[in-house]
Amino acid sequence: MHTSTLHTVTGPLSYEAVRGPVLAHEHLVLDLDLKGDGGAVLDAERHGPAVTAELADLREKFDLSLVIDLTCRGMGRDPRALAAVAREAGVAVVAATGWYYEPFHTPELASMSVEELAGSLVREIEGGFDADGIRPGVLGEVGSHGDVPSAPETRSLRAAARAAVATSLSVATHAQLGRGGLAQLELLTAEGLPAHRVSIGHQDLLDDPAVHKELAGRGAYVAFDTVGKESYQSDDTRLRLLLALLEAGHADRALLSCDISRHGYLVSEGGQGYGHLFRSFLPRLRAAGVDDDLIDLMTRRNPLRFLTGASTEEI
């Protein structure tokens, strides 16, 4: 089952209206500041104007049309701030629900059953975050760490899968440093969620082309979503891994993004910014022989198919 309508923070949007590229995994507002150093923060008031300016610039220069913001419960999510950024930048934004990986879990993960957790997600998806009526359009970034999810992470993943099945949404995961993606996919599909409604996150941090090919072969999307984060992985390695996936015939399963998750990554603070994908990485892909149709597939059609559940022939 699929839908032609995307739930954005400013209202329903037909996928046919998305004519330019999509950033498949970003954060426009968040707070992951466990250390108390203020680094892993994108504050709506302090950093919102810089975020808005970057997105508006990317819309003007690269026709950026949609951002999937995967900031969920426990990550400092702020749907109203996302709506303000979307309106001011002129770029559609999809907001998320679910739970990140265990260090950021909210109390209900310890006290509620999988069924209760799923019900909580369904109510938010169908009823909206609050009285404003803003609705999530995706579940993510539902997280785990290590090769096998912990018990609370397993409950979170299973609840997300059940909510996705009930509401016809898709699930994007956080696989810490790229690990555990196959275990995540097993858990999600065991709950009845089709693999093509799943994106396994941070696979560009895992230097294992065999895993990428297996995930894609099973029908899941493989997210190369930390492009430009050189302290985690070089873009040289990302390029090699992505080209291997394309050469294996899985271009229709690749998603690309930058996962901006600290204010220091913003262009205004000397960082690579949300536009690193367009300014640096895509030109390198083109230089390696990837044509514009494949670029459009990975940066527009694939994320739209992921969000809607549509097939290759439909988008």
Notes on the protein architecture:
This protein is α/β, with parallel strands linked by helices. The protein has a single domain, classed as Metal-dependent hydrolases (TIM Barrel, Alpha-Beta Barrel), CATH 3.20.20. It is built from 10 helices and 13 strands. A 6-stranded parallel beta sheet has the order 8-9-10-11-12-13, with helices on both faces. It starts with a strand and ends in a 7-residue tail after the last helix. Belongs to the metallo-dependent hydrolases superfamily. Phosphotriesterase family. Keywords: Hydrolase, Metal-binding. InterPro entries: Metal_Hydrolase, Phosphotriesterase. It comes from Streptomyces kunmingensis. This is Phosphotriesterase.
